[in-house]
């Protein structure tokens, strides 16, 4: 889990965008949270911000 994915102590994690996206189950996911937006960044693809929701991906690696 990266720093941007960790909720503040005592606060529940914010709902991530596109909950049905395959990205949420992938080890290559990096969540980039800004003040008003949250982005799903892929560290395995040349296209760092794939169109969401992703239903299939050749670079998918399941989280441990």
Characterization of the model:
A hairpin with a 4-residue loop joins strand 1 and strand 2 (38-42). The mean pLDDT is 83. The chain contains no helices and two strands. Strands 1-2 form a two-stranded antiparallel sheet. Helices cover 0% and strands 16% of the residues. The protein is mostly beta strands.
Structural class given helices, strands, pairing?
mainly beta
Q: How are strands sequenced across the largest beta sheet? A: 1-2
SSE pattern: EE
Report the sheet-strand fraction: 15-25%
How many DSSP-defined strands?
2
In short:
The protein is an all-beta fold and 64 residues long. It has strands at residues 29-33, 38-42.
Attribute tags:
two-stranded antiparallel ribbon; 2 strands; mainly beta; 64 residues
Write the layout of secondary structure elements.
Elements: E1 29-33, E2 38-42
Antiparallel strand pairs: 1-2
